Amino acid sequence: MEPLYLPHFKHVLNSLLMFFSIYLIGYFIIFRKWSKKTRPEASSCLISLFHGTPAAIVATTAIVADANCGFAAANTEFQNLVLDFSTAYFAADLFHLAVFSAGDLLFIGHHVATLFVILTCRHVALHGAFSVLSLLALAETTSAFQNAWALARARRRDVAFAAKVCDALSAPFYGLYSVVRGVVGPCFVFKMAVFYLSGRAEGVIATWVWVSWVVVVSMAIVVSILWVSNLWIELYSERTRKVEEKTI
């Protein structure tokens, strides 16, 4: 087990300060004219924009740069830096949720579970970054799209243009999200589980660690599918209602 001391923690601390700074800039400057209800959500989307796509890119780069990458491979220093970066983001956004959305147990649970997977990979197993970063890259593939949609959705009742943007982005975003979380993600997790069940990581990654990864990620995928399914139902209901109104 790798201790949670400096110099390792300094990478997390530096990124944490960056995300908090971005959040405060969003809250007090960029979104200062937004309502009290939407300002925190918009600021959260802002830090997500600074994490999502960059994290997907650097995670992919860190995987490709490792000549020995694999489900049981030792973490490289580059991969650990990416894990630290994402640790800071999820910690910062978890703080946001605790302050402004304490009742949103779904997202709070998601962030806690994600931090558990990242931290056990980084500081307990010291191996398996290929698995965790691959899942991270997949999850963040839709990040920019999701945040643009979320920002438009937050303002759709106040600004006509935002409503149009939200309407235009909804179906494409739901479609991409459904493919990534409902098809690609489960296929990768299945492949990961088969590898670990084969015993090829025995003596490298503790059984309780990889089992917890598979369980946590599988649960996250199920929740994601339920979330996007509800959005599809909502979209269908809205589109049906509009068609009916036009025919009256």
UniProtKB/TrEMBL annotation:
Membrane topology designation:
Multi-pass membrane protein
Sorted alphabetically, the keyword list is:
Membrane, Transmembrane, Transmembrane helix
Q: Give all residue intervals belonging to the TLC domain.
A: 37-245
User: In its keyword annotation, does this UniProt entry include Membrane?
Assistant: yes
InterPro entries associated with the record: At5g14285-like, TLC-dom
Keyword Membrane annotated: yes
| GO CC field | membrane
Name its cellular compartments: Membrane
Which residues, if any, are the signal sequence? none
Pfam family name, one: TRAM_LAG1_CLN8
**Transmembrane parts of this sequence:** 12-31, 94-119, 173-198, 210-233
Where's it mainly located? membrane
Q: What is this protein called?
A: TLC domain-containing protein
Q: Which organism is it from?
A: Clitoria ternatea (Butterfly pea)
